[in-house]
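Box 3.1 A note on notation
Throughout this textbook, protein chains are presented in two layers. The first layer is the amino acid sequence; the second is a token string describing backbone geometry. Keep the layers aligned when reading.
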Amino acid sequence: MSKAPFGFSVEEVRIWASQLAAESRAPFYFSQYYVCPREILQVERLLGDTRAAVVGIVGVQGVGKTSALQVLRRGCLDDTDGRTGPPDLSKKVALFKWRRRTVLFESLLNGTHELSEEFRERYAWYLLQELRRGLPRVLDLPQSAVGLDVAEAEEALGKSVALGLREMAWLQVLLCRSVILIDMPDYSKSDRRLMTSDLNEIYWFWDRLAAHNIAPNVVIAVQKEMFGGHFFFDKMHKIELKPLKPEQMVEAYERRFGTLKPFTAEALAALARMSRGVFRRYLRYISMAIEHWEGQPTRSESIEASLVKEVFRSNA
């Protein structure tokens, strides 16, 4: 396979363009190649000036809300003046996908939640302390929470006590952070009930955190099409993540590969304009253009603007 300049192959471009979700990208992507919207710098400044605030990052599907949260968590924001985010930001930030109460503790205990490890350590410690208080004559309790059988401890204490300890452990895990980033799912535009239910839970969760003197700030990524119609939205600092400009999308490609190859500058700019600022759409269009280019009986050296237009005429 022929290599593009700077050691990158067309296959690597194809793999990059197939990573439609921010979670698919390697951690170093956000510190080296991410083009940071100015709105995210605005969020960073807001977080530095407030306590117990709730911030809504609002954007259409595919515009990059999850990527923005990933960047905030890593604290690798670059300003136009070369200033970087607070050095301790990535250490004190928790990022997780929203899970409803019905599945939250199951995910925390079975290791599928982003904060599972920390939660299980803290929860086991609470269980052990409660067992020692309630069963002081039991001689076979472990010396530390590391050796505790959580299932047996929960059974010995009862469901009600265990649930209270779960909630206490979860609250303490979050109160150790200065910023909590919540990635909400995309919802069906035809039915707001699920979103309303989730917002009610998040409000309860935020209200409990805000009651503490050390309450963290909470940032929630919200689908723009669903923003409004709930009292919790009125309590948020709303920051809209606007679609990227075509030149920013081209810059993101060039940052990643050090070149515009195999595209011409005109072709990549055309793809960026057609994407209308939605990065996920941009990646799909890049994949489509490469597939069409490689399927040509006589392939040109570069993907030109005429071929890009041909792709979209055939898929119209």
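Confidence is low (pLDDT under 50) at residues 1-7, 76-88. The two ends are 31 Å apart (CA to CA).
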